[in-house]
Specification:
148 residues; 6-stranded mixed beta sheet; 1 helix; 11 strands
């Protein structure tokens, strides 16, 4: 009887384990954070008062509508943040304007993948055009250098 019970337990344990049961993991897409600074002084244009949050316009050029963004002003960061890019496979192209003047376009080609029970985003291409900028890989902030 013990042999049958042990055999049944081993059989049930083996049946409950499969390659599909691997404990899913999830990696959210990157945030795209953009700080706009005066090229000559290095000062943030929102902190200096040269521009106000109400001067920002972000247009989705591929869909022809306004794009969603967040303005982070806590701790005097004064940055534009895009946090909705990359949750799905997509291409986005945004026009970012200040006070009615386009200062750059921002293009992202993102692919959402799932491998080895993990979901994550691969960025095939990220392009900023029409402006000079620096990218800080430690903070993942794009610093736009604006000629005033």
């Amino acid at each position: 009887m013990r042999m049958i019970l042990r055999g049944l337990i081993i059989f049930l344990l083996l049946q409950s384990c499969s390659e599909d049961d691997c404990g899913a993991c999830f990696t959210p897409p990157n945030l795209f954070q953009i700080e706009i600074v005066d090229k000559a002084s290095g000062e943030n244009v929102f902190t200096s008062g040269a521009y106000a949050v109400s001067d920002i316009k972000v247009e989705n050029l591929l869909e022809g509508n306004a794009a969603t963004f967040t303005f982070i002003d806590e701790n005097d960061l004064n940055m534009i943040r895009f946090q909705e890019i990359g949750w799905e496979t997509e291409k986005v192209k945004y026009s970012i304007s200040l006070d009615g003047e386009e200062i750059f376009t921002f293009y992202v080609d993102a692919e959402r993948k799932s491998e080895d029970c993990c979901s994550f985003t691969v960025y095939r291409e990220v392009v900023l055009e029409g402006t000079e900028y620096e990218f800080d890989s430690s903070t993942e902030i794009y610093k736009i250098l604006l000629d005033e």
